[in-house]
Design a protein that fits this description.
single chain, 192 residues
């Protein structure tokens, strides 16, 4: 009984001594060692945050945004802009937990705006110096950056194509007035 009581009293003291001794030893090897360890730890922490964000994208975002990687390839926002987007998505019903907001932000900051990994040949041909020529080229160059072709050509029941395109422009789509008109005429023709 006395031995158990003594161990309970001595063990925390022994752990404290070992911790202090280790810290003193690290300082004795130079001031750069603790800083290097802290920098390495911070880098590993950021990589962990990015990986956690990637997992959250796969779990949450892909459900509504099948083309999210294409969207991220062309999107550029500051850190606060991404955080606002995440909060907006939560307001729209995304099941993102509070402790997932920062990892998602880190992931978006680290990966967004890097350009498409593979440019589709139709999109590459469509983006000449003159810009896209026909409606299919406009769809490939503008709409398919974020949407699959089936989504880009499926009009929501309650909206006309002009309203859909206006909303897409507000969300960041780069469509000239002439391209907008060409797309409206083409997409209206698909529904007949």
């Amino acid at each position: 009984m006395t031995t158990t009581r003594t161990l309970r009293n001595v063990l925390p003291l022994a752990l404290w001594v070992v911790t202090v001794w280790t810290a003193v030893e690290a300082q004795g090897t130079g001031a750069a060692a603790p800083q290097a360890v802290a920098a390495q730890s911070a880098e590993q922490s950021q990589v962990g945050q990015i990986e956690r964000g990637r997992a959250t994208v796969a779990r949450v975002c892909v459900g509504c945004h099948a083309g999210i990687m294409r969207m991220l390839a062309v999107a550029e926002k500051p850190r606060e802009g991404w955080r606002d987007t995440i909060h907006s998505m939560i307001g729209r019903g995304a099941h993102i937990f509070p402790d997932e907001i920062e990892p998602l932000t880190e992931y978006f900051v680290a990966t967004a705006g890097r350009g498409p990994q593979e440019a589709p040949s139709a999109a590459a041909a469509a983006t000449s110096n003159q810009g896209p020529q026909g409606p299919e080229a406009i769809l490939a160059a503008r709409c398919q950056l974020c949407h699959d072709i089936e989504i880009a050509t499926a009009r929501p029941v309650s909206e006309d194509w002009a309203a859909v395109l206006d909303r897409m422009v507000l969300l960041g789509a780069s469509v000239t007035p002439a391209e907008r008109q060409t797309l409206i005429e083409y997409l209206d023709g698909l529904e007949q």
